[in-house]
Fold:
Amino acid sequence: MYAIIDIETTGTSYLNGKITEIAILIHDGHRVIDEFSTLINPEQKIPYYIQQLTGITNRMVDDAPKFFEVAKKIVEMTEDQIFVAHNVSFDYNFIRQEFKNLGYDFVREKLCTVKLSRKLIPMKRSYSLSNLCADLNIENPHRHRAMGDAQATATLFGMLLSIDPNLAGISTQGFNSSLKPEFIKKLPEETGVYYFMDDKHEIIYVGKSTNIKSRVLSHLNNSTTKRALEMKNRVTEIDFEITGSELVALLLESNEIKKHKPVYNRALRRSIFNFGLFSDVDENGYIRFMVSRIDENSEQAPLTTFSSSMAAKKYLFTLVEENHLCQKLCGLYETKSSCFQYKIKECYGACIGEESPEDYNQRAGKIIAQYKYSHDSFLLVDKGRTDDECTVVKVEHGRYIGFGFASREVSGFDAVEYLSSAIKPFPECKDVHSIIRSHIKNSPRLKIIKLNSEI
Structure:
């Protein structure tokens, strides 16, 4: 059974917008068997351009019920139904947020007719509802009104079902026969870590994704290598942990792989951090850089990490060229005399002792410095598992301490102490610093809080 839903709203963001109209059609896989629609008082003004688009004015919703007054009806009609909508995330997130404001956790399995249309009706000029209706001769005289768009979506959904009657079912064909569909259905479309377990309840694989459900289904449906097929056939249980933050998901995944040593993480070489850029000082006092496979038993941590030796060497070549370093000292040019860069006057002669270690190391040292943290001790604050929560990662005196979850409500003088107290200790390892540095560099929204040395 399916609940085909469309809403009209005061804006495009569920974080500050509100619902002005909702329509629900209950579809049994063949036809619509029940329906409900109502205007909703959003308890905020409807912008003029939205009024022009939908035709719903402030006056029309003045006497309409507020969301809490129709919430029970929405829960009852959608319970045990699959939530279907065109661009489902929009409608689902708005409704989920309205319920969250009431203190209720609204969770439903979802289907998106946009995604299904792209898959089953390819090569269309556009997959907006209005354009699909025009291309497929679906009548919709009440565009941008909840019931009109819901009825059009229901007609489209019927067409999609006729193409693939099993499109809404979670097929376990090809999976291990002991893997129950319930394990798939409960998977969230959120960021976190997932676990594959065998019939002995042992963890055989750990992964992370910004969409756990999508990633797990990709594993189970698109296994092509011998080891991937072998792993799929051993999976009997799936568990997960939502983190909200991709940074924390990566940190947790790294720790869980090292802790449990899942057989297929090792066999498939799951870690992307296989090669590293290292540095040391040679007998003549010159800083040397080299690319090497990461050895978990080594005490020396890489400056940064790469997915392949080729990617690491390509990066090192760029560093050498941009900083006028010596290819010979960086292991990129084997010779007993001068390096190639010296011959084209890009190396200043460190390879044959013409440039002093002090001058050479001044440039090389700047490269090493860029891989050190800007602060000795700090907190990283990222989004949490809910809108009211944040994740916190702590680095103290250059060492990774761990992460935790905290409320966003605490602010002011006590905030730093409160955030620090939320940290759960995790082991220090080489991977985590590569993960943290990468996110500091590539995530501008990541908040960095410098800590005093005594904290």
Q: What stands out?
A: The first strand starts at residue 2 and ends at 9. The longest helix spans residues 146-163. Residues 373 and 398 are 7 Å apart (CA to CA). Residues 2-163 form a domain with the Nucleotidyltransferase; domain 5 fold (CATH 3.30.420.10).
